[in-house]
Amino acid sequence: MLDAARLRADFPLLQRQEHGRRLVYLDNAATTQKPQAVLDAILDYYRTTNANVHRGAYGLAIRATEAYEAARERVARFLNAWAPEGVVFTRGTTEAINLVAGAYGRANLRQGDMVVVTAMDHHSNLVPWQILCQEKGAVLRMVEITEDGRIDLSDYGQALERRPKIVAFPYVSNSLGTVNPAGQLIRLAHAVGAVVVVDGAQSTPHLRVDVQALDCDFYACSGHKMLGPMGSGALVAKPALLEAMPPYHGGGEMISKVWDDHSTYNKIPHKFEAGTPNVEGAVGLAAAIDYLERIGLEQIAEHEQALAKAAIERLSQIDGVVVYGPRGHRAGVVSFTYGDVHPHDIATILDQDGICIRAGHHCTQPLMRRLNVAATARASFYLYNSLEEVEALATSLVKAGALFGYVPA
Ligand code: PMP
Q1: Fewer CB under 10 Å: which end of the chain, C or N?
Q2: What ligand 1 atom has the least distance to the C-alpha of 91?
Q3: Do residues 201 and 225 touch, judged by C-beta distance below 8 A?
Q4: Could you confirm whether domain 4-30+297-403 is CATH 3.90.1150.10?
């Protein structure tokens, strides 16, 4: 396992206390903490390099542009993108998926066409497709999940028989921790001619991702879930698809020539980056990638899987606790309920012990309906978490249960 104690020392916020207790941060699927290296990169950018990009003739602006474009190349190398031009900086996964739905979807979907999503999709990979289908008179088909929280491959096959134009799914589920067989799902979708959109919000921080090996068409990710700044992220796409797409937002940067009544557009990726971009976000994201790669994505994945396994074993021993999602191979996300104790009460009580977990529907209301719950409590791990923190979670949970009359087994 990784030396979590040593890594933890790199994160200033994790040195703080909550309610006088050591902070145990287990809400990494929502957002991660930032290492000093990322904070330094952002500060250094503002101290030495800040100017608006792409339009300056002076040295400072040229260096700012170079820093921004170097960050794009860093993201491209990290995900093995087809080309740096295939990396569009966005505010995160949500904006990346809205970009695909709003630009590719609007241009290519016709009345009666089908878009396929799954019952475990985050609202970010569902609502943009609902809006698009409503606008176009297209059909949205939701693929069901199995009892153990995986995409139901037979239902997926049936959905594909209708030859959808677009298929969208999460590589890793933020509510269940399921790692979907992305390569297989993409091959099957391509065999019927669909374009595939992968929600990589939960895979990019935790697995080694190679978009060319996956062969998806669009891949969306968020910087803040992988040690990077809030409001950073990217859409990674096959360049030919981006070339053929109309723009998403209009404004500065994305144009080539502007006349009174029409415009021509810039080359990719700039065509999709209207206005002043989040340079600080891109620079911070590149520093986060450097940090992650120094540790190794494979080691991070192994570490989280060990923590999730320990958490599932430990929580399952507590009478009244139900853990959701697949057993065996899965990501470091553990959703659970505890008898009839409301997950919000669990989270509030754990907070008194300095433990941060999430409670709610995790932006997956259709999934919650299928699990027959309104909400779950969710612990999600990252590289700075340890087995001792899993134990602290379990101990605090038993204490919370006792307040509601649950007797420890
Ligand atoms: N998809 C999944 C699977 C997620 O977990 C999240 C964040 N919770 C998102 C999409 C949306 O990401 P963001 O809020 O960073 O745009």
Answers
A1: C
A2: 16
A3: yes
A4: yes
Give the position, in ligand 1's atom list, of the atom nearest the Cα of 173: 3
Q: Which CATH architecture has domain 38-293?
A: 3-Layer(aba) Sandwich (3.40)
Q: Could you tell me if the CB of 180 is within 6 A of ligand 1?
A: no
- Radius of gyration of the chain from Cα atoms? 22
Q: What is the pLDDT of residues 251-296, one digit of tens each?
A: 999 999 999 999 999 999 999 999 999 999 999 999 999 999 999 9
Task: Give the distance, in angstroms, between the CA of residue 104 and the centroid of all CA atoms in the same chain.
Answer: 21
Query: Do 282 and 71 touch, CB atoms closer than 8 A?
Result: yes
- Residue 109 DSSP SS3: coil
221 has catalytic annotation: no
Atom 5 of ligand 1, residue of closest alpha carbon: 174
Q: Please report, for the chain, the start and end positions of each structural domain, with discontinuous segments joined by +.
A: 4-30+297-403, 38-293
Q: What angle do CA 378, 384, 390 make, to 5 degrees?
A: 45
Q: Is 124 in the pocket of ligand 1 (CB under 6 A)?
A: yes
Q: What is the pLDDT of residues 115-174, one digit of tens each?
A: 999 999 999 999 999 999 999 999 999 999 999 999 999 999 999 999 999 999 999 999
How many whole angstroms from 53 Cα to the centroid of ligand 1? 28
CA distance to 29, 245, 307, 308, per residue, from 313 (Å):
20, 48, 10, 8
Atom of ligand 1 nearest to the CA of 170: 3
Strand ranges in 21-143 using DSSP code E only, listed in sequence order: 21-22, 24-25, 87-90, 114-118, 139-143
Tell me the CA–centroid distance for residue 121 and ligand 1, in Å.
10
Using a 10 angstrom Cβ sphere, with 0-12 exposed, 13-18 middle and 19 or more buried, the burial of residue 359 is: buried
